[in-house]
Amino acid sequence: MHPSEMPHKPEKHVCDHLRKLEDYLMSQGIPPTASGQVWSMNCRFWIYFKAVLDCAALRKRFELPAFVVEHQNDDPRSGREKGLVCETCKDALMGYHPLDGARLPVVS
Question: Is there a smaller number of Cβ atoms within 10 Å at the N or the C end of the chain?
């Protein structure tokens, strides 16, 4: 099962480095599709949203620190995705891969 298919846990949140962006996505009505510890022990808490995230624009808009990096998985077998990962806390906010989200909102 791809992590984007896991149930969302609304009682948990990402780290403070990503929290303002998480709150913004929620305030814009972008629905979370899933959340939890994904892939490995190297991931703490990831939230998947039903949107395409313009990572460069969001990094600039929210003045994210250098250790919050863009992550993009292009492998359709394991589940394509694109988002922002905090390398310090191992949390992430993920959206659909641009090739898969043509009909979804783009959040910038």
Answer: N
